[in-house]
Write a structure and sequence with these properties.
The protein has four helices and six strands, in the order ββαβαβαβαβ. By secondary structure, the chain is of the alpha/beta class. Helix 1 packs across helix 2.
């Protein structure tokens, strides 16, 4: 459970740059792979955690899609998913009725996070040089939408200045 009131932004660099008057173009990349082994017996190989409706009437994947839809400058999301879950993922996207322009990138074999992000970056390379990638797991619960929007807004400013930004919980101890 990720409570955004305690969310911190971490950057590898901070470069001062004037903020443009236009809204940044953000490409949401939603990582929806998984083997269904972490929340057994609810999740299974053919029905992993991100496809479950755990907190409300939408699945974790659907909730993530709706979360990014509220971002200023967000392009249609790209969902990276394993071949095994392609049809149920498409069904869940279609159930929302508002992501006609979204894309699904299929992983023939799950290879973990970094290869999925690389494949998504390769898929999106023709979108332009001014695109900011927002990479999100499909299975996080974010309780405060406004806090999420604000955190992404702050991260966008840093990313436009050339920083690599990650989100995390601010540690309170060793």
């Amino acid at each position: 459970l990720l409570e955004l009131s305690s969310l911190a932004l971490f950057t590898t660099q901070v470069v001062k740059q004037e903020r443009k008057d236009m809204v940044a173009k953000i490409q949401p990349i939603i990582l929806a792979g998984g083997t269904g082994s972490r929340l057994w017996p609810l999740s299974r190989e053919l029905y992993p955690k991100q496809l479950l409706r755990l907190t409300n009437h939408t699945s974790l994947l659907q909730t993530t899609l709706l979360r990014v839809a509220g971002l200023p400058g967000a392009l249609p999301p790209l969902v990276v998913v394993g071949e095994l879950h392609r049809f149920i993922t498409l069904t869940q996207i279609e159930e929302l009725g508002r992501f006609d322009q979204s894309a699904i990138l299929l992983e023939p074999v799950g290879r973990n996070t970094a290869p999925a992000i690389c494949a998504a970056a390769e898929f999106c390379k023709n979108l332009g040089d001014d695109i900011i990638f927002l990479v999100l797991p499909a299975d996080h619960i974010v309780l405060r939408q406004q806090g999420f929007v604000e955190a992404v807004g702050k991260a966008t400013v840093l990313a436009e200045a050339g920083a690599v930004v990650t989100f995390g919980i601010q540690p309170t101890g060793p």
